[in-house]
TrEMBL record:
Transmembrane segments: none annotated. It comes from the Eukaryota. GO terms for cellular component: nucleus. It comes from Friedmanniomyces endolithicus. InterPro entries: SAP18 (IPR010516), SAP18_sf (IPR042534). Belongs to the SAP18 family. This is Sin3-associated polypeptide Sap18. Residues 198-265 are annotated as: Disordered. Residues 210-233, 251-265 have a biased composition (Gly residues).
Length: 265
């Protein structure tokens, strides 16, 4: 079964939703390294990697059940309805919500201390009140519900961003300026100078499935249960082969981070 949903419309009456963890932060964009935690030696009683995250991160999160065709407009409506009071400014007109996917790089080597490398990917941004929003002091300008008038990339879906079940969504909330104008998009983040992985360039293309599990990616996207088998840290099979095909003769069949006991897929 593919863990990467399609970006096509979903028959929601026939397909069960998946669990989506959304982490939020005000004014400061969460770093992928915030989600990199070294797993304990014994993971028997740990069913969810997210339980290992620092308390400061877990306290600012919500659980949403949705589908791959969930748009940013729909996601914004769900998220804002669950945020604690005071997180969004009042009125919220001019507030920008910037969304990103955060997930482990399943092909990266472990870092010092057993931590895996995590990366992020832009998902899109939404502006409360529309792209031309400007609060002028009229309390009625808030328009009632936050999601009644949204601007930005409201129609972009999780499937459009090649979301994989188990990815995290992070949302950075930028309130409007003192003059009521929309908060500008944050500048692109440069890689840390001392990051030994910075020279690797962008992350590899997304795959269907979990990838390596704890051994190489720093944590399963869904949990631990029985996925840490053979092939842990082995080199990829040599030759030209595709996912789902048997590796060519003479390859080690180590699974290349698939964590499935040496299976070639």
């Amino acid at each position: 079964m593919s863990l990467q949903p399609t970006n096509r419309p979903v028959e929601r009456d026939a397909i069960a939703p998946f669990l989506l963890r959304v982490y939020w932060q005000q004014n400061r964009e969460p770093m992928p390294t915030d989600f990199s935690v070294a797993p304990p030696a014994d993971t028997t009683d740990i069913s969810d990697y997210s339980s290992l995250l620092p308390l400061a991160i877990r306290q600012k999160s919500v659980i949403i059940y949705s589908w791959s065709d969930c748009s940013l407009a729909e996601l914004t409506g769900l998220l804002t309805s669950m945020l604690p009071a005071g997180v969004l400014p009042s009125p919220a007109v001019g507030t920008r919500l910037v969304y990103k996917l955060v997930f482990p790089d399943t092909r990266a080597e472990l870092r010092e201390g057993g931590k895996g490398k995590w990366v992020d990917k832009p998902l899109g941004s939404v502006v409360v009140g529309g792209n031309e929003a400007h609060f002028n002091g009229d309390e009625d300008a808030n328009g009632g519900a936050v999601t009644e008038n949204l601007g930005g990339e409201t129609g972009r879906t999780l499937g459009d961003a090649r979301f994989v079940i188990g990815d995290y969504v992070v949302c950075t909330i930028y309130p409007p300026g003192q003059d009521g104008r929309i908060a500008a998009m944050p500048l692109s983040r440069a890689p840390p100078r001392m990051d030994p992985y910075a020279a690797r360039g962008p992350p590899p293309p997304r795959e269907n499935g979990y990838g390596s599990g704890f051994g190489r990616g720093g944590g399963y996207r869904g949990g631990y249960s029985g996925r840490g088998g053979g092939g842990f840290g082995a080199a990829p099979p040599v030759g030209d082969w595709r996912r789902g095909e048997r590796p060519p003769p003479g390859s080690n069949g180590g699974g290349y981070g698939r964590g499935r006991g040496g299976r070639p897929y």
